[in-house]
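queue> holo job accepted (magnesium ion)
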Amino acid sequence: MTEGNFVDYVKVHVTSGKGGQGSKHMRREKYIPKGGPDGGDGGRGGHVIIKANKNLWTLYHLKFKRHFKAEHGEHGSKQTSTGADGADVYIEVPLGTVVRDKETEEILFELTEDGEEQIIAKGGRGGLGNAHFKTATNQTPRYSQPGEEGIEADIILELKILADVGLVGFPNAGKSTLLSVITAAKPKIANYEFTTLKPNLGIVNYRDYKTFVVADIPGIIEGAAEGKGIGHRFLRHIERNSTLLFLVPADAPDIKEQYDILVDELRRYNPQLLDKERLVAISKSDMLDDELKAEMKKILDKQFKGIPYLFISSVAQQGLTELKDKLWAILN
Ligand SMILES: Nc1nc2c(ncn2[C@@H]2O[C@H](COP(=O)(O)OP(=O)(O)OP(=O)(O)O)[C@@H](O)[C@H]2O)c(=O)[nH]1
Ligand SMILES: [Mg+2]
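queue> job finished
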């Protein structure tokens, strides 16, 4: 997935179909002089339905198609025949899509299961035909109901990625590089900060066809909660991840301090992020020799007390199997 194709926020306009008009038809046949009312009901207007599809990963397909209009119901007709319902229209979205009202910003619902459907705009009911209105005192009603109007609404679709593992780190920590070596994803990698501006996803193919999904998100810096760097809006993409993998580069002046800053920024965005399982990977550790690593371990064991950490190098392919094993163990 290239960055330009990653769309996680769109506004769409939906209109459901109007119900069909009930018929006022009177039965007229050669040998039945007073046939009476035989007008059928109008059909229901089409619904606009939002449906989750596990094969979609972004809202990109909705970027250029923003109006969804369902068909009107057909009118009723003679011989009490009911008009056909208007065809429903489906808006397909990835799992993890949240639907909001554009005016109030209120969350209407969210879709998390493949195939899950929710009606966002209900089609109008069809009107009743005159056949329903025949009474003892009025044998020939010449009226029927109009169909109910459809509904128009402006809604916001917002995606919260449902990855298993979210990568959290300062810019330049090596997040995208890690994604590129443990998955088939080809994110942009460069030796400057904020190379990644939109999330990237990759699927880790693990022993015996087991898989899990990793999300690489833009770097976080101190003050992200106040909008520093590129802010923290994209942190919503790790809200649904069950595990957070913190990446701190081996050459950081103080590894534990960087970790604490990251944790603090997450807390300021949403304290519930801290309820997730965490693992710390010290990246770029090909820059350390064994002696230095051993010394760092002594210090880190004390500082991290219980918080699991390990040394990895994406470039030298070190510690990656152990990393995948640990992630898998946490995820299961
Ligand atoms: N020596 C060494 N360098 C690495 C390693 N992993 C990444 N790098 C380098 O670190 C720099 C930043 O890597 P990225 O993967 O783009 O870092 P990032 O965390 O995605 O950065 P942002 O997208 O800006 O947040 C690049 O120059 C990489 O080549 C590693 O294991 N060892
Ligand atoms: Mg990156």
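queue> The pocket of magnesium ion (ligand 2) is lined by residues 175-176, 195-196, 216 (CB under 6 Å).
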